[in-house]
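Anyone else keep sequences and structure tokens together like this?

Example one:
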Amino acid sequence: MRSARETVETAQEPRERGTEDRAARYKRTFLAYLSLTKPRVVELLLVVTAPTMILATGGLPDLWLVIATLIGGALSAGSAGAFNCYLDRDIDRLMNRTQGRPLVTGELTDRQALVFAWVLGAISIAWLWLFTNWVAAALSLGAILLYVVFYTMILKRRTAQNIVWGGVAGCMPVLIGWAAVTGDLSWPPFILFLIIFLWTPPHYWPLSMKYRDDYQAAGVPMLAVVRGRAQVGLQVILYAWATVACSLLLIPIAGMGIVYTVVATASGAWFIFETHRLYNLTIRHEHVSPMRVFHGSIAYLTLVFVAVGVDPLLPF
């Protein structure tokens, strides 16, 4: 015969399991919504925003302004990512690389994703307008439209140059960061804009080389699908040289000091070396590791923008 204590404990077990199950479901749902925002892309975009704000100020900007701009920028980029996941859900189901996305697994419904994207976008624009200025808010709206309409809906499935012109959306955070501080735009943020614009193809095309079969199966005409590896490697080299050259233009235009000059030159030389290495391996038909250039490009851009943020804080 069971004691009263055993009876109570037995009755509590289903309740405890139910609480744990609900907590697990809430966690899965939260992570699914977070996945829609493409957090790695958001992280990279925020890396370039804060240094731009330091350069615009010529020192340390107001901390709340930086936080408010980063929050607004994250919401804006997250909205664009969610719209992209919704619009590309058909091809995501055909690609191994995207099999884990929540609209493919069924963790979220199409309607949930679309509502989330609209709400996040509206909040981001209102937030930036309220806590920064209307210029930054307008640029945020422009970034969302560029990524969702210009890239995802128009370019991505129609041309191998999709990532070149579609990459304009990824350049907008530097304009938003500058505008949040100054309320207007000038030459330095446009140079930063061009650095990211020229950097995007040699960053993304190596990734498309690795996942060429995925893009081909989905009918997406990435350059690696419609051109040979050697042609892709050559284009990566050309854009890498243009990126580094553009980064050096910031020295006279923004009055950058020795720290930025050394970092931009040294990291640029390393970036260019890696792209040449990729090309040489492709033309010799040897084993190619395009992700080495992909990850290296992220390290390069991070170093350059860290230098952008550090240089104005130094007395030399």
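And example two:
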Amino acid sequence: MVVDLIGSCRAFVSVSEAGTFTAGAAIARIPQPVASRRIAALEGHFGERLFDRSTRRARLTPFGRDMLPSAKRLVALADAMEHDAQRAKLRPLRLAMPETCTTRDLAELDAAGRALDVFLEFRQASPRERAELVRTQEVRAALTVVPAEEGAWKVTLGLAGTGGSRTGALHLETLRVGRSGGAPRRVWIQPEDDVPQLRDRLFRVRDSVGLRPAQVSVADSLTAAAAAVFGSDDLLLCSTAQAAELGLVWRPIGEIRLARGYEITAGLGEDAQRIRARLWPDIARCLGAEETT
């Protein structure tokens, strides 16, 4: 017979403290017949009686008195383990996120996770830093950049500026400096998009349409890139959500289609599966991604 040692010891301790099987079962929050069966199973396991059943009260036998202290320790240890398990479930999962996510975006993702018993703690970092944080186990998971066609989430990119038409594509070739000279308009790439599959492709288009090398440049930060755009006719490579947040006019690029791709990278595969399965639409909203699987 397989004995539920913890459950049986819990019934044993409760009955010994209450003095009767009925009261002990109530303390253990189980029916009285269940308490009796569990104690009988424990007695069968040990091969000795724990209680003297010749009286109305549940009186411990000498063997029962000897076993009671260790039974109490086992029950206390089991209770402590249950408590520790609950605390561990509530410990936040550290997740590295793009720096492009706003405080509100992250707060809404956090709230969505809490509703599903997924407790998150965010660390915002650049694409290269996020991958390194997972490798060094400083975070349990990260949203890492991948080619758009390989990602679980895709964020379409375009060019945004302070003015101009809101309709139609914007062709990079229109930024060529004419014979009359003048300050050339520039396209700024923010750090989130400073990855080969985006940066290098845009550089190739720059060169093919005859723009100067400096007309498509990587900015030190999103703030620096946005500041350059606000103070000139320059353009920012960004998503529609970022353009709306910054109050810029967004248009797709005429010569090329660019999109950020994101995937979950985690030290444990089950963490990646858990985040993807439970929070897919919420992460999509946080990123400003297309909500399609």
